[in-house]
Structure formats: C-alpha cells, structure tokens
Amino acid sequence: MSNNLLVTLLLSVLLYREATAATNRTFPDYFKFGIATASYQVEGAWNEDGKGENIWDHLCHTNPTFVDNGDNGDIACDSYHKYKEDVGLLKDLGVAYYRFSLSWSRIIPLGLAGSPINQAGIDYYKNLIQELVDNGIEPMVTIFHWDLPETLQEFGGFPNPELVEHFAYYARVVFENFGDSVKYWGTFNEPLQTCHQGYGTGTMAPGYKSSGLAEYKCTHTLIKAHARAYHIYDEEFRPQQQGYVGMIPDTMWFEPASDSPADQEAAERALQFNYGWYFNAVANGNYPSVMIERIDERSKQQGFETSRLPKFTEEEIEYIKGTYDYVAINAYTTAYAQAKEETDPSVISYESDLNVDTFIDETWEQSASSWLRVVPWGLRHLLNWLSKTYNHPEIFVTENGVSDTGGLDDDRRIYYYQEYLSNVLEAILDDGVNVTRYTAWSLLDNFEWARGYSEKFGMYNVNFANPERPRTPKASASYYANVIASRCLVDTCE
Ligand code: GBH
C-alpha cells in the first residue's frame, strides 16, 4: 500500500463517523470486486502511434461548445502513458479485476472491415493486459464504449446496417489478439446511450437528433453486431479460450409512483423501453412486445407504411436469442414512474412512444450530476427485477458510482458505496439474487463526456492542470480497499 493511501486511510477513519444503515454481514467468498474506466475517458494520446480519429475526437475538435469548458479527451488522464501507474493503484485497492475498454480507432484507425490494423495499438493493450496479469488482476474488457471511428460515422454510423460487418472484423481482431488472457468480454457499453443519446436526443457524439427514427435503426444494427460478435466468439474462439461474452446495458430503476395498476404498468414499460430494448432482444431474440405494439400502432396512426421500429426476421431472432453468458447492469440512480395521458399521437419521438411521466423525490441527495440522485434501495429493486425478468441469471454490476465536484475527503462517495453495496448484499443474502461481481465507477477522475472534467467520479483525484497528471487517492479509495480486504462494509462485521 502506498504512503498516500495509508495517510488517507487514517484520515478517513478519523473523519468518517456517519451513522449507516449498512448491513454488518460479509460478502460471500466467490463475490468479486472490481473497478472501471473507458478508453476515451482516460487514455489521451488521441493521435499518437497511428491512432485514428473517433467521433469524440471529432466532436470535441469541431464543436468545442458541445462539451463544458471546451474540454476534450486529447490528453485526459494520460493513461496511454501511465498505465503501469494505474495498475499500481488497482493493486493498492486490491480489486480482483479491472474493467476497461478498447479504443477501436487505436486498433483499426479507419474502423472499416478489411482495413489496416495498427500494431502499436495492439501492443498498448497487450502491455496493459500483461501488467494486469503480472499483478494478479483479471482484465475485463469492453469492446465498445462509445468511441466509434470517425470514418464509420462518415458512412452513417450505427444506423447503417453495414456496421455489423465492421464490428465483426474488429471483434475478431481483439478476440484473436487478447483472448488468451481476457476471459470476460462485454460487447457494447450502455447501448441505450449510444443510440438514444447519440442519434435520438443528440446529447452524446455523434450528436444527431433523430428521436423515434435513426435511434431505432441504430439499435437494430447494434443488436445484430452484438449477436455476430457473440457467434464469432462461440465458433472460432470459445473452444480454446473458454471465456464469457455479454452485453452491458444500463437503466435507472423506475419505481411505480403508486400501487395503481396503471403506474405499475408505466414503471414496467419504462424498464422495457430502457433495459429491455436491448436485453430482451439478447435474451429472447426480439424487442419487448410492449415496444413492438406501441411503436407499430403509433407509426400506423402517423401514416407510416411500415413501423418506425425495424423488424427482425425469424432467422435473425433465432440467431440473436441467447447471445449472452452473463447479465450485466450499469446502475446509478432511480426515478418514480407514473402513468400519463396519451400525448399528441402525431409526435414522433422515443419519449412519446414510451409515454411515461418520471419524477424524483426532492429529498433524495443530489450528486454533482443533474441526472444522478442517491437512492441506494433502487439498486436492490433493480437487481430483483433483473433476476425475475431474465430467469434468475448470474448478474454482474458492471458500473455503479457517484459524482462530486472534487476534493480528497469524499465522504459522500463513501456513503454512496457503503449504502449501494449494502443493497447489493441484501439482494444476494435476503432475496436470493445471484450477483457475483460489483464494479465501481471509476478508478480515476476522468473525461465525463459532455460534462468534461467538471464532474468527478474517481476514487483517485487527477490533477488536470499538471502535465504529469498526478493521481492522489481520495478517502473513498481507502474505504473501498478496506471493503475488499475485509469483505465487510462497516467497522465490524458479525
Ligand atoms: C455511465 O453512464 C458511462 O458508462 C460512463 O462512461 C460514465 O462516465 C458514467 O456512467 C458516469 O456518467 O445529460 O441528462 O441527458 C451512466 C448513465 C446515462 C448518465 C446518460 C448520463 C445523460 C443524462 N448515463 N446520462 S443527460
């Protein structure tokens, strides 16, 4: 353990005296703790050693008002050069695994199927993986975490069905190069954000506002690309590599605003439009029936000859069904869901296709992110819903965490982890939900997409004003290290 970490450990013990409702039972032996980052958010080196441009490079450079303070990921945490130091931090924490993502355009600069591979990019990830393995930390790799090669966007990006072929080429390259050491793969991180924010609301790169139209095409391609990568793994790599492949969708928890059947149905519909839009397809081969029915019907009312929600063929349904080895969830927050009068049927948007009112309880603690309130019990409800809805699978929490505006004495972050982890443990021990992994977001303060460097999620502070990008542990780092070592959330466990 580093001296810095020891100092903050002592500090946190002295300063952190808050009453907690957290359980004093311990996590089972099989349960694994990890922590996550993503390529564009931490790597920097945006144009070094042959890396191609991606949609976030492009957006930040061509439209600097898109991101707060004109921030960009050109240097970010400089993890491209500082990966050994990052692995040292992971070791200090004692995590069993590190979830990180690959930069597609670092590996295949143009992204296109059949186009040249950048050996320096392959080498970077080989070195990172080797450093992890040498330190006893398991790599868990996200193949795509939002940084699409810009060339592929110029071909239309995800709404263009050709993207399936480009992704298949990329997936094969990474399984081939890294699959001896990597046993846990995630194809797409938060596909909802790629499609809904990227092509629907336009709040993420590439920034298109085509709600209820291009975003549905995006999802259609993305699901096929996922299934394709899964089958490639299954047929060409699984026999030797023996790993696990899944998709990594997200949703907030939607709590029914009341016991009324209408509000219960509204909450379920919101979950299906967020999580089910992706995972019902992966699990059962198709979109949730409530999405199909509503969008088909509304499209018809709007005078479309065919539904705005694309159709999978019978053959595609069979191909997509069951393409997962685990169920993953990125979960941060909760909202109430309430039934609502049908709005103007002529409005073309995802929001009006869903047609649910959401609101929050103003007493829920606010984080530094407008969308993120601290609602620990929501995670337990969500884990129960996943377990019930998808037939009691093994579940990984692949992201969970909270933002503040900075500072090393991050007692609100400690509170967040303690209470959310307590709800994970209660889901396991009291509700019989098979959760086997928990991944904190994030190792480092990093590039928080359209919020730039203003919202901090890290257990380690990064000084972005210093070209060396020094890392300093926060109190939450020592809290998490302690939880991992003791498998216990409070001062004493039974
Ligand atoms: C995850 O997104 C991401 O995987 C990760 O990269 C990110 O850093 C982390 O969590 C923290 O945000 O601006 O009102 O339109 C979490 C879910 C969903 C949160 C989209 C931000 C945008 C809300 N994200 N949301 S808004």
UniProtKB/TrEMBL annotation:
Q: Which GO terms describe its biological process?
A: carbohydrate metabolic process
Output the Pfam families linked to this UniProt entry.
Glyco_hydro_1 (PF00232)
Q: Which Gene3D superfamilies match?
A: Glycosidases
Q: Does the keyword Lipoprotein apply?
A: no
Carries keyword Hydrolase?
A: yes
- Active-site residues per Swiss-Prot or TrEMBL entry: 399
Q: Which EC number(s) are documented for this chain?
A: 3.2.1.21
PROSITE patterns, per the entry: GLYCOSYL_HYDROL_F1_1, GLYCOSYL_HYDROL_F1_2
* Signal peptide as annotated in the record: 1-21
Name the top EC class. Answer: hydrolase
What does the record give under GO molecular function? beta-glucosidase activity
Q: Which UniProt keywords apply?
A: Glycoprotein, Glycosidase, Hydrolase, Signal
List all membrane-crossing ranges: none
Instruction: Report the family membership.
Output: Belongs to the glycosyl hydrolase 1 family.
Report quaternary structure and partners. Answer: Homodimer.
What is the protein name for this chain?
A: beta-glucosidase
* Protein source organism: Zophobas morio
The organism's lineage is: Eukaryota, Metazoa, Ecdysozoa, Arthropoda, Hexapoda
